[in-house]
Amino acid sequence: MSLLARFTVIGGLSSEQLARKIATRLRSKYVGCELRVFPDGESKITLKTKPTGKIIVVHSVYPPVDSNLVRALALVSQARKYSSQVYAVIPYMGYARQDREFLPREVVTMSLIAKMLKAVGATKIIVVDIHSMMALKHFQISTKNVSAIEEIVKYFKKLCLKDPLVVSPDMGGVGRAQNFAHLMKVEYIALEKHRDRKTGEVMIKSSNHQKVRNRDIILVDDMISTGGSIVKAAEHLRKQKCRRIYAACTHALLIGDAEKRIRRAGVARIISTNTIPGKTSIVDVSAVIARAII
Ligand code: R5P
Question: Ligand 1 pocket test: which of 102, 225, 259 has the largest number of ligand atoms within 8 Å of its C-beta?
Fold first, then answer.
């Protein structure tokens, strides 16, 4: 049977371009949808045509997070009317940072989302560089996390960097930096970051790193949200006389004036993927997602 007959890819509005690319790679049917937002904020979604075969719903959950979450759930639920196999591809999984109770009485919202996706009929979940694997433990259906790191590294290999050093802005990202550096065949270090859980304020606690001086830096993180982590890391690295700083991440939310603040902190370029479309999303993850579907 040809791939075309086997799959339909439904592109939610938050991931339309990426979904089209995935459909092309799978040589499958693509079904778009119409979104109407009522004055009170409610979303009304209509599929443009009827899906057939196994259905892949592609819908990132970035801001407006709660609206996009409801839209993703609605599409999965609708898809289930046409197929017993519905994969929910959530390239950027919002709420993944709320995967455990950090402070007493906090709601672990990721667990609720896992229950909802199963309840509406998702049979498999595919995500890209989810913030923590712990988030996926809340699902009682099959899940797969794919990595965009190799694709981002391909981009960096084409740049003429001077003695590049990969830097993780925090210890939690050391594995990611190590993997990135290994693929780039360069060295890496990790900074020590502290975030106040109540105020969200970020501080870099690391002392000086001898390795930084006069080298091009690739700051690698899974996501950039307010930009606080990258700004503090860049300021710290510049004090130690590094050369150019590049910020690379899978998911660039770039909330408010994050981009401006990151540039002001001395970052020459921000590179992210199309899990969240935007000015910096120049690395395409459709190939890694398509490979995870087949
Ligand atoms: C934290 O553990 C994450 O990996 C990111 O470093 C963080 O979520 C980025 O957020 P912000 O840009 O607001 O500092």
Answer: 225
Would you tell me how many other CB atoms lie within 10 Å of the CB of residue 80? 17
Q: The domain containing residue 177 runs over which residues?
A: 149-274
Residues with a known catalytic role: 193
How many of the other CB atoms lie within 10 Å of CB of 84? 9
Residue 279 lies in a domain: no
Q: Angle at which helices 286-293 and 16-26 pack, to 10 degrees?
A: 50
Total structural domains within the chain: 2
**Average pLDDT score over residue span 86-108:** 96
- Other beta carbons within 10 angstroms of residue 67's beta carbon come to 17
**Which helix (DSSP H) or strand (DSSP E) does residue 71 occupy?**
helix 65-79
**pLDDT mean over 159-175:** 95
CA 26 remoteness from chain centre: 21
The helix, strand and coil proportions of the chain, stated in percent and rounded to the nearest 5, come to 35, 25, 40
The minimum-distance atom of ligand 1 relative to the CA of 225 is: 12
pLDDT for the residue 5: 62
- Do 121 and 196 fall within a single domain? no
Ligand 1 centroid vs 227 CA: distance in angstroms? 7
Average model confidence (pLDDT) across the chain: 95
What does the chain come to in residues? 294
State the Cα–Cα distance between residues 150 and 159, nearest whole angstrom. Answer: 15
